[in-house]
Write a structure and sequence with these properties.
Blueprint lengths: L15 E3 L8 E3 L2 E4 L2 E4 L10 H6 L3 E11 L2 E10 L15 E6 L3 E5 L4 E5 L5 H21 L21 H35 L2 E5 L3 H7 L1 H7 L1 H14 L3 E5 L1 H4 L20 E3 L5 E3 H10 L1 E2 L2 E2 L1 H26 L3 E2 L20 E2 L12 H7 L1
Parallel strand pairs: 7-10, 10-11, 16-17
Antiparallel strand pairs: 1-5, 2-3, 3-4, 5-6, 7-8, 8-9, 12-13, 14-15
Length: 378
């Protein structure tokens, strides 16, 4: 068998190294990392509030990994231990054997359980980091164009035969700031995903959600999906559910059509994307995302259990109304996404209160920067 070509990495791409076992190469023994004669002390959490560290160090180390992370333009090294056994679950994180229905979109999420329901924006706290990235990218582009005018046509497009790009000191400065901004966004997003996943798992470890095409999401809402990462959240939620003894059940959208069906009369009616409320002639009315999460809760083998949904509706309707009431209170004096449908009442008429502002830019990822901005920078 012929070996393949060696794959080389430059120093900037080479960020981790790991061993195959804890016997040779990288070794972790007596709270120290051993490698080629080096004996490195590790920094531990002295408080260890939740006893996570104590639990981890009591397990057998299968192998370890040395990871380099660039924080504030400085190299910081971490050791990751791959341990034998199951991961530690905090006492307050223990979940009940209940079922939760989730409806997740490019910029919002809704969940429903027998005890609680919620509708909220998805990782909206990341927006300042995303806007900062866009501003830095524009600055870098202007700097690159001003330093390399020979590489661009008069209309602002790149020439086919390019010369080497010269990077100014300002460009390198912006590049370092952008790298740090990406790191902060990634870390904050991971924390927000974990917080939301724990909130869902506490309500129930069996989760039902529609199987969505996030590739299609990227085509239509590219910017929103890029920094919120809904698919990454579902992967984390699946891992946490399995650790708790549950699982995620993905529902076939073509068979169930939860956003179109009414559980009370069985009527199917296709809705436009701008219609954010489910309103039926049988007087069933609910916010569309919350209603889809409610219906997902009662799907079995890609079939909606209409009898169970009808039986649960009186109490479920109160939970859905409470979720909308909480959302309306937080919406006063702040921008809210148009996909919530808060600018319309349940009857379909517009709300006179103008404090609720529709934020269409949150869900539309089709806009591009105007070319004239690049022309002026040349």
């Amino acid at each position: 068998r012929k070996g393949g070509k060696p794959r080389f990495k430059n120093e900037n791409r080479f960020s981790s190294i790991e061993g195959k076992s804890n016997i040779a190469g990288l070794k972790f023994k007596n709270k120290k990392l051993h490698y080629k004669g080096l004996e490195l002390d590790i920094i531990l959490d002295k408080k260890d509030r939740y006893k996570v560290q104590e639990y981890a160090l009591s397990k057998k180390v299968k192998y370890c990994r040395l990871v380099r992370k660039k924080i504030k333009n400085k190299n910081i090294f971490f050791v990751q231990l791959v341990l034998e056994g199951e991961s530690f679950i905090k006492e307050k994180k223990h979940s009940k054997n209940d079922t939760v229905g989730i409806d997740i979109g490019p910029s919002t999420y809704a969940f429903f359980s027998d005890r609680r329901s919620k509708l909220s924006s998805f990782c909206n706290q990341l927006k300042p980091y995303h806007l900062k990235q866009r501003n830095l990218q524009r600055k870098m582009d202007r700097s690159l164009r001003s330093m390399n005018t020979a590489n661009y046509e008069k209309n602002g497009t790149l020439k086919k035969k390019l010369k080497k790009f010269k990077k100014s000191k300002k460009y390198i400065k912006y590049q370092n700031i952008l790298t740090e901004t990406y790191r902060k966004l990634k870390t904050y997003r991971k924390r927000l995903h974990g917080k939301l996943a724990n909130e869902v798992i506490r309500l129930g470890k069996n989760i039902k959600t529609e199987k969505l095409s996030f590739k299609a999401f990227q085509k239509r809402w590219g910017r929103s999906v890029s920094f919120r990462a809904p698919s990454l959240f579902l992967s984390l939620l699946n891992r946490k559910a399995e650790n708790a003894g549950g699982k995620i059940e993905y529902i076939n959208t073509r068979k169930t059509a939860l956003s179109q069906i009414c559980h009370n009369c069985g009527t199917k009616e296709k809705k436009q994307l701008k219609e954010r409320w489910h309103r039926c002639e049988c007087k069933i009315s609910a916010q569309r995302d919350l209603y889809s999460a409610f219906l997902a809760r009662y799907v079995k083998n890609d079939m909606l259990d209409i009898s169970q949904a009808k039986k649960a509706w009186p109490s479920a309707n109160r939970l859905l109304e409470q979720a909308i009431s909480r959302l309306r209170k937080t919406a006063i004096g702040s921008k809210k996404l148009s996909s919530f449908g808060l600018n319309q009442s349940q009857s379909g008429s517009l709300v006179k209160d103008r404090s609720i502002i529709s934020d269409a830019k949150d869900v539309v990822g089709l806009f591009r920067e105007p070319l004239r901005a690049y022309k002026n920078s040349c």
